[in-house]
Amino acid sequence: MEIAVDPLSTVPIYQQIRDRIVEAIGDGKLRRGDVLGSVRSMAGAFRINPATVVKAYELLRSEGLVATNAKTGTFVAHDRDGEHPDAAFEGDWSQRLTTVLAEGRARGIGHERILEFCGEICNRLDSGRTTQKEGQ
After folding, report:
1. What is the pLDDT of residue 133?
2. How far apart are CA 16 and CA 4, in angstroms?
3. pTM of the full predicted structure?
4. Where in the chain are the domains?
5. pLDDT tens-place string over residues 93-117
6. Coil, strand or helix: which one is 34?
7. What percent of the chain has a predicted confidence (pLDDT) above 70?
8. What pLDDT, on the 0 to 100 scale, is given for residue 57?
9. Is 126 helix (H, G, I), strand (E, B) or coil?
10. CA–CA gap between residue 16 and residue 2 (Å, rounded)
11. Quick check: 20 and 4 in contact, CB under 8 A?
């Protein structure tokens, strides 16, 4: 799986790595059991400090999306077709979604356009075509 990060972005690199992995799980490119690159190989590929990759993987682990095994390394622990999320996750996810949608409204994006964006993104996830800045 290819992950692209933008070193000039205002989004921290560990967050970009985390986000790209979540997107790959969400669109089905990564499935339960798929092994992620080692910390060392990811750090080498991006020419970043290994601690940055560790931070991304720890965040994913805390979210329950990946797990680590001493023998196999870090692997996807949950996929989009897995069991339903628990109530605690739904509450956290709902709060994060509320913040993102509120940011759009605060920037002047109307209700209908927000719904259009949501539909477009869900369609891209279902078709396996998630890329940040698609079409730009």
Report:
1. 46
2. 8
3. 0.75
4. 13-76, 87-127
5. 788 888 889 999 999 999 999 999 9
6. coil
7. 86
8. 96
9. helix
10. 13
11. yes
CATH, range 13-76: 1.10.10.10
3-state helix, strand, coil in the chain (%, to 5): 55, 5, 40
Within a 10 A sphere around the Cβ of 94, how many other Cβ atoms? 10
Which of 95, 96, 59, 64 minimizes the C-alpha distance to 77?
A: 64
> Above 60 in pLDDT, residue 42?
yes
Reading the block at residue 109, the tokens are 């994006």
Identity of residue 31: R
**What are phi and psi for residue 112, nearest 5 degrees?**
-65, -40
Residue among 39, 34, 89, 31 nearest 17 (CA) = 39
Other CB atoms closer than 10 Å to residue 66's CB: what's the count? 26
User: Whole-angstrom Cα distance, residue 90 to residue 92?
Assistant: 6
* Beta-bridge mates of residue 35: 75
What element of type H or E holds 68? strand 66-69
Q: Give the model's pLDDT for residue 63.
A: 87
